[in-house]
Amino acid sequence: MNRLGRFFKGMNLTVFSLVMVFLYIPILILIIFSFNDAKIITGWRGFTFKYYPLIFQTPAIKEAFFNTMLIAGLSTLISTTLGILTALGLENKKFSGRKAMQGLIYVPLVIPDILMGVSLALLFNFTKVSTGMVTVLIAHVTFCISYTVIVIQSRLEGFDYSLVEAAQDLGAKPSYIFWKIKFPLMMPGIIAAALLAFTLSIDDFIITFFTSGRGFDTLPIYVEGTIRRGTITTINSLSTLMIGFTLFLVVITKRVRKIMISAL
Amino acid sequence: MRQSPQQHRLERRRNLSSWLLSLPTMIWLTAFFLIPYFIVVIYSFLSPDIYDVKFEVSLDAYRQIFSGEYLRSFLLSFRLAFYTTLLCILLGFPVAYFIARAGEKLRNTLLIFIIIPFWTNLIIRIFSWRIFLAYNGVLNDTLMRMGLISSPLEIMRTDLAVILVMVYVYLPYMILPLYSTLEKLDFTLLQAAMDLGANEVKAFFRITLPLAVEGIFAGTLLVFIPALGAYLIPQLVGNQRSLYIGQVITYKIKNIPRNWPMASALSLILLLLVAIMLLIMFYLFKRQRRRKWQL
Question: Cys staple from B157: which of B138, B199, B201, B239, with CB 3.0 to 4.6 Å?
Fold first, then answer.
């Protein structure tokens, strides 16, 4: 390899390393500072563990956590179910509503989130629905559907129809074929879609912000409010726990993926 | 080819079942995605009230917008989206290239490292930047202890901080699509070009870049458009002197006195700008693809 080639290779490695530092420094700082003995954003003031127990003693955090999990669970369930049905419907390439349906699914993905938030806020105002758990749930399902449909659909695209034909030739009933062949083969896609919907839901701030109203906080809403008011004592430690939860999910999904692959 | 009546009937039945299967989602998205935009259109022509809207037709919102009152916010948002996208491409390309050329086993591990921050809660990541960049935060503390600066740098609450955190948050959205096109790239082409006497620079601009254009487009779609509507990052690390359009819209909805007609009109204009951007991008993308086929 000549000098120019080595230079390019070196440059890629350098940029990669710098980007890694860039991506992880804030997260590391957050974890370290969750043990910082200070009430406001400031330099290092000595080690403490006192903010961790405080998380579990704050009722507002407990409530926000419960709300987040409730919304994430329900919106995952609803959006994944709708995703499965729609993906099965779109499987038929000659479906006369295919283009319209696909447009309806792709358009929300290319519009800034804030516009979905605004439009839903005005819808709930116009229809005089009081904001709270139900409106947040509706909003979350709305932004999750596109993702669940696309993920499950992409799984169906690589589907081996000779399996279905073989079963038909051997005289299997359609319902038997669906539950014993098609559904198990769709399962990895369904799990991936559900996990994506779940993470999107627990992560969302802006759409929840527009549709929650007072008195129904999810964790991101609670955290933002706390940062704005400047009382940040528990935020570092709460954040560290949430990062831990993410890492846990990453490990779990890897496991799940492995199990799914070995099961096939 | 003519179909037998039996085949025809079967197809009609399959079409009907497709409709039935798609119907719940179709109804859901019509009710909660399409109809709300009609309400935004209606509200943009009403009069504001302190808490709500008055059902009196008024063109005030549009009049105010076209007098240029919010032009600065739109321009700020465009500038932010532009710099964020540009920096994401410049930083993301070498990273995606590096991962795509790594060994097969290493590749998945490296990808996981890119995805983890992306799975970590957005607000938490923004908050950690506040700890890092604050006036008496980690960065200033470290630099002062090292004797590199004598007084703290004021990075927090500047437009620079907004761009920095935006790049931080959106970088994975650029790296992942870039990686997936670069991964499919046939690197023997590069070798062939260089055997024929092209140097690395020439090979990059004539082969790698044109073939990676699809990834750049996909990444731009995922970065530029959300960046146009950014609210949270400017709100948490920016300042109140330069308000981005996402902040203006949110304030008009949330802060009292409310101005929902204005928020609606601004939202519609933002939507229109996004649509124009999308059309331009798809046009460029198509042209590029046609050119690729001609090669």
Answer: B239
* Tokens read off for B181: 């096109």
How does pLDDT run across A46-97, given as a tens digit for each residue?
A: 788 888 888 888 899 999 999 999 999 999 999 999 999 999 999 988 899 9
Helix (H, G, I), strand (E, B) or coil at A36: strand
- Please report which confidence band the pLDDT of residue A136 belongs to, taking 50, 70 and 90 as the band edges: very high
Cβ distance B33 to A104 less than 8 Å, yes or no, reads: yes
pLDDT confidence of residue A259: 57
pTM of the model: 0.91
CA distances to A33, A36, A38, A58 from A48, in Å: 10, 6, 9, 18
Which of B37, B94, B226 shows the shortest C-beta gap to A11?
B94
More confident residue, A116 or B202: A116
* Domain boundaries, given as residue ranges, for chain A: 58-263
Contacts of A30 in chain B (CB under 8 A): 124, 127-128, 131
Domain ranges of chain B: 1-34, 45-294
Contact B18 A92 (CB under 8 A): yes
Beta strands in chain B (DSSP E): 47-48, 53-54
Chain B residue numbers with beta carbons less than 8 Å from the beta carbon of A7 are 200
Q: Taking the C-alpha atoms of A83, A152, A198 and B113 in order, what is their torsion angle to the nearest 10 degrees?
A: -160
Domain A58-263 - what CATH class? mainly alpha
| CATH of the domain spanning B45-294, picked from 3.40.50.2300, 3.30.230.10, 3.90.550.10, 1.10.3720.10 | 1.10.3720.10
Mutation target to probe the B interface, by most B beta carbons within 10 A, among A113, A122, A229 is A122
Complex ipTM: 0.91
DSSP strands (E only) in B77-215? none
Mean pLDDT of chain B: 90
